[in-house]
Model the fold of this input.
Amino acid sequence: MNILVINCGSSSIKYKLYDMRTSGKGTQRAAGLIERIGEGNSQTTHQVNDETVKRSVPINDYEQGVAQIMELLTTCGSPPPLRDPQDIDGVGHRVVHGAEDFSESVIVNDDLLKVVEHCCELAPLHNPANLAGLRAAMKTLPGKPQVAVFDTAFFQTMPKSAYLYALPYEWYTEQRIRRYGFHGTSHRYVSMRAAELLNKPKPNLITLHLGNGCSMTCIRAGQAIDQSMGLTPLEGLVMGTRSGTFDPAIVFHLVRGGMSLDEIRDAVEKKAGLLGLSGVSRDLRDVYQAAQAGNERAALAIDVFAHRAKQYLGGFLAHLGTCDAVVFTGGIGENAIFMREKILSGLAPLGIELDPERNNRRAPEPFCITKADSRTSAWVIPTDEELMIARDTMELISFR
Done:
């Protein structure tokens, strides 16, 4: 069974093709990225087997992008992974926001497209692109089942005490303002892998997805009960260019000082986080290198990042009472040895005892980073959101 996974950004399409015949584990057949869609200087990178194909062909919209993906999948490689686009059995799509309408992945129909469109106001940077990708794939591959996998679905098990803001209740009932949580596909994938590694079907976990975007999830008996992100992916942890949580009165102060709301939004989403604090880069690797060279702002950015993560970790530990494991994933979580150490340092009284030797390694395979007698273990588990989407797609279309 050939499953194509599509992840559309504001001007990009990431994609992977999986052969899902291997008991659902999936074998990646091809992958690629189309960047700068609609900008006149589009760049495409396509990988199949050990071959990399690069193209600089203008891609004006998502329909042209999906058409090019089909052409690459059927012509590149020895042999190409597909003989014909009709060899694709289903397409799985990442959709960022499903509000309260979806608690699981679903097969796409016209009614679903209307709901995704209705959610665009909640995720104006993401859902319009996701919707365009859905429509493009439906037009390019008519009759092939399309599946929407929502970032927010995993968090529909959160109780009201966790997802409601202490705001006028009508804002929730009339305007859908509440905490939704994001990166759900990643948190769901690593929580499932952790359950396998711990040999415990429904563990209590705290999962940290740390990359350019960062979020943390509190999981009790296999279900999410809290998350660091909120109405949007801006709330919570310090990120590459996003501020994470800050006092909302700062906005009032800045507006009174003459800044526009658009300027403030641009700053907290694109000029804050590690970049804003360090003045160096949004990439933690660059920030760390600058800190090692004596840059005090870079060192401070690292400290703030770790402080905020530890703050959420402590709160989630209190919610759980008993935690089976803490799980790190994402580019930073999987590779930044020093950041894992900063976040977990000093937590032995709470049952988490880091083993520096075990921690001194990187992915690609899962590994434990705590001492053998640590009451709560900590793990590094590489995420695979695309494979999770492919699995959901395969399961849904198998029962059509």
Remarks:
- The chain is about 40% helix and 20% strand.
- The chain has a mean pLDDT of 95.
- Residues 200-380 form a domain with the Nucleotidyltransferase; domain 5 fold (CATH 3.30.420.40).
- The longest strand covers residues 27-35.
